[in-house]
Amino acid sequence: MSKVKKASQTINLNNSQYYLNRELSWLEFNRRVLHEALDIRNPLLERLKFTAIFSSNLDEFFMVRVALLKEQIQAQVSQPTIDGLTVKEQLEAIYQRLHPMVIEQHHNFEQVLRPEMAAHGIQLLNYIDTSQEQRSYLKEIFQKKIFPVLTPLAVDPSHPFPLMANLSLNLAVVVKAPNTGEEKFARVKVPNILPRFICLPQELQLKNGKSQYWTGVAIEQIIAHNLEFLFPGMIIKEYHLFRITRDADLELAEEESDDLLLAIQQELRKRHIDGSIVRLEIQPSMPQAVRQMLTAEMELSESDIYEINGLLNLKDLMSLMKLPLPHLKDPNWKPIIPPRLRHLHQKNKIANLDGQESSIFAVIQHKDLLVHHPYESFSCSVETFITQAARDPHVLAIKMTLYRTSGDSDIINSLITAAESGKQVAVIVELKARFDEENNITWATQLEKSGVHVIYGLVGLKTHTKIVLVVRQEGEEIRRYMHIGTGNYNAKTANLYTDVGLLSCREDLGADLTDLFNYLTGYSCQESYRKLLVSPVNMRDRIIALIHREIEHCKNGNKGHIIAKMNSLVDAEIIATLYAASQAGVKIDLIIRGICCLRPGIPEVSENIRVISIIGRFLEHSRIFYFANNEENEVYIGSADWMPRNLDRRVEAVTPVEDVEIIQTLQNILAIMWADNRQAWELQSDGSYIQRRPEQDGVERSSQNILMEKTQQLSSNKFFTAL
User: Distance between CA atoms of 487 and 256, rounded to whole angstroms?
Assistant: First the structure.
């Protein structure tokens, strides 16, 4: 790492004071998510959605990051992170920051969103507020559909404390024997196979004589008020709701495993009940005796307990997004078909392949094509590319990576069709894609049965790159076509995540991808690539070299400029290099959605660095890297963030973009995002974020709205006109 001479003194760029803590930076990201739930400028159901996302994000944070910190404490890890905090200090800081955020989230839901829902005809009733007719209906539902699924578990000397599944919602029930007066404890799990909210029939959804859009009651309240059916003859003294979170990160000794598929299947069985408990969520009404019993049995401390004043597990609110109430949601967006591909789709059907002009390969052969999701259609571009490759009799082979895909994927079906028709099909399925392991095992097994060559990635590395290679016979020649993208081959998330991808048949890229697939499927030790930046082979060195090139331009009296858009910036070596570039006068603009360990705006260190984060209706997921290169602009796109895991422990690919129009398009996208004053947040040097607001003209500029508008205005083969 660099040490740079500045103002007659040496500044150590590795000093911990110049770095932000990774875990606390992530909490600041989730605070920005929570703000979207608080922001009255957002439609009601969108605010509920962000409330649910905040909770879902926290679940994963505890299952992975907090669990890891707790494991480090048990292993007596004492080495501080790059920001200087020890493991214990990180946990303490997490609890101090997170507790107020959780309180704010639930206060907003109970005191603001819930009444506003009721005002719009969406009633989430408490059981005690239901009418006698409504209770009679709910009791009938309980007896017919809920009661048969429940299993009360006693806790006493002959019945040990029961194992509880990860993220399970439970009732702690205290009952009393009428004859002896002896109190006993039991646990009732709220079944997650049933809907969380039980909807009342329309005739029972009246409020002040008016019919409502939707009226429901949480299932745990229905169970709680019918416990006498589970404990006949006993007196129900009290009940209390609680929820647990376990360590859910897989621990694999890959080098010692003969069968990676079997090893992951075995670990998945353990995930739900074997991981140590890292969080207990309770309601404030839980008495101290029950609270102490739970914490003792679960081996938790007080700092692991989160008191929730209201409904637990708010991520289930996501189900309300299905309500047919468009006026309470963001305006509907339907991705457009990229102009150069419109002739391939007649009445939403892929055109006949008889003529070369109707083939997507002819479009790519003419010139490279950039696709931008969800503004442009994933199914009419990337899926069409793979679907046509599967059906085209001239295609000899298809190779691709699958990190995450959707359950009803046309891509999976196309790969099966291709293999069954005799094409060579090879798919690298990453079984270690966190929380998608079970899905990927299912698709891997299905693909293998159909004759697809399935490879489960490399030992010690996750295959995270997003690439497809199609080999096609064209007369006497073999031509290679490819897609290199920033997002997963998942049609569902392609409508929610912003991603870019390059469709090309450039020979140098085709040769690089061939070498990369040989590295993934065989025993290749490829150490150099013509164009691609590949981790863990050359990406780190190439990125640092590109930053140093901007430094040299500044030293030679020219201007240096870097714009980088990614999900996270954590890598200490790259951050130190960016600091050195800032000291040399390079202007650095970073668009980082989530974690950022770099401190911008520090005099003599990072005063030329600005960082923003954009949180909107779409999840910003694309990675775009711009280097001015003394006015010979270079732009790269790919799958890698600037994190140690992406650069050192994953297989990633980043490609240069060489088409002048596409370079301009990507520059325009970055410029639009940087000008955002509606959904952009500016990172301060202390690690806090301040949301941008419109200036004196009062005009809001939402980058995502602007990109939707400009995409709709498309009328030529250009992505959109220059700003």
Answer: 32
Taking 50 as the pLDDT cut, the residues of the chain under it are: 1-8, 252-258, 260, 263-264, 268, 271, 347-356, 715-723
Task: From 309, 328, 347, give the residue that closes a domain.
Answer: 328
Q: Two tokens at 126?
A: 């408490």
Sheet holding 305-307, edge to edge: 153-155, 183-189, 169-176, 235-246, 277-282, 305-307
Whether residue 418 is contained in a domain is answered as yes
What local confidence, expressed as pLDDT, does residue 706 receive?
97
Q: In a 3-state reduction of DSSP, which class is residue 190?
A: coil
Q: Which amino acid is it at 640? A: A
**pLDDT, position 391:** 95
12 — phi, psi (to 5°)?
Answer: -80, 105
Domain membership flag for residue 436: yes
Residues 395 and 256 in one domain: no
Give the C-alpha separation, 484 to 405, whole Å: 16
- List all residues 6 or more positions away from 699 whose beta carbon is below 8 Å from its beta carbon: none
23 within domain boundaries: no
Q: Which residues contact 178 (CB under 8 A, 6 or more apart)?
A: 233, 234, 235
The residue ranges of DSSP E strands in 158-294, in sequence order, are 169-176, 183-189, 197-199, 206-207, 210-211, 214-218, 235-246, 277-282
| pTM over 0.85, yes/no | yes
CATH of the domain at 294: 3.30.1840.10
Residue 250 pLDDT: 55
Residues 693, 633 share a domain: yes
pLDDT score for 526: 75
Contacts of 413 (CB under 8 A, 6+ apart): none
Look up 120 and say whether it is catalytic.
no
Q: What is the DSSP letter of 354?
A: S
Total number of domains constituting the chain: 3
372, 373, 464, 561: which is the annotated catalytic residue?
Answer: 464
- Give 559's DSSP letter: -
Residues 319 and 294 placed together within one structural domain of the fold: yes
Whether 546 and 614 map to the same domain: the answer is yes
> Which residues lie closer than 8 Å to 479 by C-beta, 6 or more apart?
361, 365, 471, 472, 505, 510
Q: Provide the token pair at 230.
A: 């589970």
The residues near 109 (Cβ < 8 Å, ≥ 6 apart) are 37, 51, 310, 311, 314, 317
- 477 is written with which tokens? 């020649």
Return the structure tokens found at 111: 């005191």
Give the tens place of pLDDT for each residue, 612-634. 999 999 999 999 999 999 999 99
Q: Which domain holds residue 642?
A: 533-712
Domain boundary (306, 328, 350) is at: 328
435 and 556 co-located in one domain: no
Q: Based on the domain organization, do 550 and 664 belong to the same domain? A: yes
The pLDDT of residue 357? 52
CATH number at residue 499: 3.30.870.10
Per-residue pLDDT tens over the stretch 346-358: 644 444 444 445 7
Would 464 be classed as within a structural domain?
Answer: yes
pLDDT at 158: 66
